[in-house]
Structure formats: C-alpha cells, structure tokens
Specification:
Blueprint: E1 15-22, H1 26-37, E2 42-46, H2 54-57, E3 62-63, H3 72-82, H4 89-108, E4 123-124, E5 134-135, H5 142-156, E6 160-164, E7 168-174, E8 207-213, E9 218-226, H6 247-254, E10 259-260, E11 265-272, H7 285-289, E12 293-295, H8 310-324, E13 329-332, H9 342-350, E14 360-369, E15 372-374, E16 386-388, E17 393-394, H10 406-422, H11 433-440, H12 450-459, E18 463-464, H13 466-472, H14 478-489, E19 498-499, E20 513-516, E21 523-525
Parallel strand pairs: 1-2, 1-9, 2-6, 9-16, 15-17, 18-19
Antiparallel strand pairs: 3-5, 4-5, 7-8, 8-9, 10-15, 10-20, 11-14, 12-13, 13-14, 20-21
Helix pairs in contact: 1-5, 1-10, 3-4, 4-10, 12-13, 13-14
Bound molecules: flavin-adenine dinucleotide.
C-alpha cells in the first residue's frame, strides 16, 4: 500500500458506468450481477485476488427460514435474541423475509447448495439458531463455491468491466451547496441526532459521483456501492484475510458519511491456535452443530453450552483461559464424520493435526464487524450517491452480536436492494479539470502496522477497560481511533463489547447505536 504522503499519480481519462462497485466478495459480485441483469453497465473494482475475500473463506453458509417447521418470524426472534437488545427490527425483518428468495436466486444463477437424495436443501444448525436453517455448499466450502460461481458469471458478463488488482484510493464527491471539501477531504460533521432520526438522513449535500483508484484511474457513475468487507484483520488475532482492514470505512468517512457501532466486533470462539501455518484458521460452528464439544485441555471438563450465541461462548472461553493461564481450549470433533467438513479436516491434517484422533487447540479471534457505514433499508449511506453493502455496512440488523450465517444472507438481500435504489440516481457526469487535480492529490489510507494490530488486540480485545481504550485514542491509525471513541462511549457490557470497568448492561442504551460523523464525539441514535 502506498505511503500516506505519496506523490500524485497521473490521471487517466475517466471511465464511466451506471454503477461503480468496489469489492468483489459476495456482496460486490452479487450487486454487479443484479445491476447487469437490469441492463446497467457496471465497473467492478477489486483490490485482491478472489481467494483473499472473506466471502471465499466462509465455511458455514447462509441463514434462511426454509424448513417446513421454520418461519421468518422464528428466524427474526433468534436474530433479535442474539443481538442483545440492539437489533434494528426493520432491517432484521427484511433479512428474514427476503433471504429465502435470495437462496432461490442464487440457485438460478447456478450455485449448487447441498441437498438430500430427494433434492431438498440440507440445512445445518449453528449457534443461536433454534432450528436447522443454514444452507451450505460442498459441506464447509460454501464461500468458495459461491464466490467461484458468481465471479465466473461476472467475468463472462459483457455489461461488467472488472478492474482487477485495482484499489479504490478515494471517493469523488461533487461539491454541494454546503461548500464541503469534496474529493476526499473531511466534510462537516453531518451526523443526525435525536430519538427517531433515520440512520441515513440526507444531511449531506455533496454527492458521490465516482472514485479514483491507486493507479490513477478515475471512475464516474450514477452511484458507488462500497462492498469492501469488514475490519477484523485490524486485530492481531483474526480469522479474516489480511485485506479486511476496514479501508471502505475510511473512504466513506473521508466524504463525511456516518459510521456506527465500531466497538461491536465479534470474536469467533473457535479459531485454531498453535497449529503451525494455521494460526487463526476458523473452525466452523457447524461442526459444533453436528455435536463437537469444547473442553478444558487440562481437566477435560466441558464448561460452556457449545451452541449458545457467539458472544457467550467466546466470553466463557476467555474467562477460562484467564483463570487457568492456558493458551487454548480443546475442540473435540473426533465423533464428526470428516466427509461433512472436508476442507476443515484437510487444512488441519496439512498442518500435522488429525482431528479424527486428537483435540484441536482453539481460542477466540476477531471475526466480524457488526458496525460500519450507516445505511438505510436500501443500503444508502448519509452521502447521496454512496451505498454500502455487506460487512462494510451497518444496517443495524446484527445488533451487538451477529447470529451465525446471517452475514452472507445480508450481503445478498441488501445488495439487491442497493442496486434497485442506486439505478434511479441521476446519470453520471465527468469530473472537471479542478476536480481531477483534487483527486490526484488525495493520499491513500495508511496501512495497519503490526504494532497497531497488537494494540487493538490488547486494548480493544474481548475484555476492555477505559484505560486501554484511552491509550488507543492516540493510535496512529484513524480507524483504530474511531473504534476507541465508540468503545469508550459505550460505558456498559453488551454482546461482543465487554467492559471490565462497566460489566453490566445499561438499559438506557438498549436500541441505541453509537454514531460517529466528523471529528467530534459519539451520538446515540435509535433507528426505526
Ligand atoms: C473464515 C470466515 C468464515 C466465515 N463464515 C461465514 C459463514 O459461514 N456464514 C456467514 O454468513 N458469514 C461468514 N463469515 C462472514 C462473511 O464471510 C463475511 O461477512 C462476508 O463474506 C463479507 O462479504 P463482503 O462481500 O462484504 O466482503 P469480502 O468478502 O471481504 O470482500 C471484500 C472485497 O473488497 C475488496 N476491497 C477492499 N478494499 C478495497 C479497495 N480499497 N478497493 C478495491 N477493493 C477493495 C477486497 O479485496 C475484497 O475483494 C465468515 C468470515 C470468515 C473470515
């Protein structure tokens, strides 16, 4: 990644499209395909090879109420229970109602989900779900199958142009009457406040018209959809690929878009630890769904309900590790048929560990960002023309603790909505010469150094204190500082956010989202 004060890059002639989509994970690929299906021209900007998206790594699957004895209402109840009184009801309701339709659409696009011999979808069970509702492909190879199929379709689609290996460096905003800085400078604090303010109220007068890549290419479009994934790789111990460092959040923040709930980072309970070459390798919850158990490695004791929601399981493991001084607990999957989870078993065996004979050492690792760019129910951010879908967005539907496998479903449900809304934005226009010069002068976001990642793990890890978070406020990385701001403001423990100095939940913060806009503090919002 270029340094913060890199010299300007030469500008190429702007490319124009109906939609610019940044990121080629599940959310970005599906958004591009949905737009092309509507006859729109799409420019898809993808920084990394496909194998480096979190989507490719997904092992569990998509949650959708498809079983005969399941219902959207039941899926909604499980989502709200896991989310710890912070789930935005309207967004969760959309998810549970529209997820089954997205599964059907993916099947029509050629994604082959696992089925029984009668052709009925085989549904898995994961933590926090009261019933089997996880649709998967190739056992634990769901993400790989999805991403391969969707990227093959995108590559073959004439209406989609892919800028492969291109990284968005900044968003291009057209100056509005507010006199904002545009072209990547911090605009005024546009955060809405108040009891019922909509999360993406159009307080911003500037409009997003495109983006500039690190190689100098400019893209102009009716709208930009950010699908750049999450931020969990900012933490030293993570299940995520290295690219998941929240760059999209910084791109959006620089245009004045509002971000929320950055303190709510889910720690997955079972990432491999001390397994050579596989540090942080995620071992899907679906394996516990099939009966694998968790044990204290010294006493053999089972000490936690394996299928409780993730925050509960991670917290119990962390407490046990602190009490015993151990590095890991043991996952016993010896009774599980290896054929059901072929890629997990193969990865562990390659690393010299045979899960059919021995316990797998595991511990929690940073996994999923519940917070992100504040969006409305059609994935619009607070900056007109700028949309966000997938893990980079904050629809509010995951509350303080995402229910397993709701994130892939969210990628598809809200990508479809984003496209429908974005295609009605005004047509693209080209940047003026002055705007082109301004775009050329914008610096790239600074990379996260190993020191910053270690600081986040230490000061904003599973257990946090005011003292550690204060220290993080002066970290040399803008996103680390924003995370610290939100985490300091949330003076309570809720879901994934555990403050040792505020161990109780504060009912006054029920359904209150921590929103950051400009350089100032945090505002609390209730989203309808
Ligand atoms: C190991 C693992 C297992 C998981 N299992 C499941 C599961 O079973 N079920 C489930 O629901 N969820 C699961 N999750 C979470 C889920 O996979 C993610 O939330 C989801 O895939 C995110 O998709 P996305 O499209 O938003 O982002 P990603 O898939 O991360 O894609 C982001 C893309 O943006 C690109 N990008 C980033 N910055 C830029 C830039 N500046 N310019 C251009 N491109 C950029 C990246 O290169 C990448 O292509 C898992 C996550 C991990 C890490």
């Amino acid at each position: 990644m270029p340094s913060l004060h890199q010299p300007s890059t030469p500008m190429a002639d702007p490319a124009s499209a109906d939609l610019a989509v940044v990121g080629a994970g599940a959310a970005g690929l599906y958004a591009a395909l949905c737009a092309a299906r509507e006859g729109a021209r799409v420019l898809l900007v993808s920084a990394t090879p496909l194998a480096q998206t979190a989507s490719y790594w997904a092992q569990g699957g998509l949650a959708a109420a498809l079983a005969a004895d399941d219902s959207p209402e039941r899926h909604l109840a499980d989502t709200e229970l896991a989310g710890r009184d912070l789930v935005r009801h309207s967004a969760a309701e959309i998810l549970v109602r529209e997820a089954p339709g997205c599964v059907a659409d993916l099947q029509s696009l050629g994604v082959r989900f696992d089925a029984d011999r009668f052709g009925r979808l085989a549904l898995g069970l994961e933590g926090g779900h009261s019933i089997r509702r996880i649709v998967h492909a190739g056992g634990s190879a769901t993400g790989r199958r999805l991403v391969r199929q969707l990227s093959a379709l995108a590559a073959a689609e004439e209406l989609i142009t892919v800028f492969e290996g291109a990284r968005a460096r900044a968003l291009w905003t057209e100056l509005g009457s507010s006199g904002g800085q545009g072209a990547g400078e911090h605009g005024a604090d546009r955060q809405g406040t108040g009891e019922n303010s909509l999360p993406a109220g159009n307080a911003c007068e500037d409009r997003c018209r495109g983006l500039v890549c690190e190689d100098g290419r400019i893209v102009s479009a009716r709208a930009v959809i950010l699908a750049t994934g999450g931020a969990a790789a900012l933490w030293a111990r993570t299940t995520n690929p290295p690219g998941s460092q929240g760059i999209g959040l910084l791109l959006a923040h620089a245009t004045g878009a509002r971000l929320a709930d950055l303190e709510l980072l889910q720690f997955h309970p079972t990432a491999a630890i001390g397994v050579p070459g596989r540090e942080g390798f995620l071992i899907t919850e679906a394996i516990r769904g099939e009966g694998a158990t968790l044990h204290d490695l010294r006493t053999g004791e089972r000490f936690v309900e394996e299928l409780a929601p993730r925050d509960e399981v991670s917290r119990a493991i962390q407490a046990r590790l602190r009490e015993t001084g151990a590095e890991a607990i043991g996952l016993d999957m010896r009774a599980i048929d290896p054929a059901h989870f072929p890629n997990v078993v193969a990865a562990l065996r390659e690393a010299g560990l045979d899960p059919a004979r021995e316990l797998v050492p595991v511990a929690p690792a940073a996994h999923y960002a519940m917070g992100g760019i504040v969006v409305d129910l059609n994935a619009r951010s607070s900056v007109p023309g700028l949309y966000a879908v997938g893990e980079v967005s904050c629809t509010g539907l995951h509350g303080a603790n995402r229910l397993a496998s709701n994130s892939l479903s969210e990628c598809f449900v809200f990508a479809r909505r984003a496209v429908a809304a974005a295609l009605s934005e005004p047509p693209a226009s080209s940047p003026t010469a002055a705007e082109t010069r301004a775009l050329a002068a914008i610096s790239a976001s600074p990379p996260a150094t190993p020191e910053i990642r270690a600081a986040l793990w230490r000061d904003a890890g599973i257990e946090r204190t005011g003292e550690g978070l204060e220290r993080l406020l002066s970290a040399p990385h803008p996103l680390a500082r924003l995370i610290a701001r939100c985490a300091l403001a949330r003076t309570e423990s809720r879901g994934a956010h555990l403050r040792l100095d505020y161990p109780e939940r504060d009912p006054a913060l029920d359904l209150r989202h921590a929103v950051v806009g400009g350089e100032d503090g945090v505002s609390w919002e209730h989203w309808e």
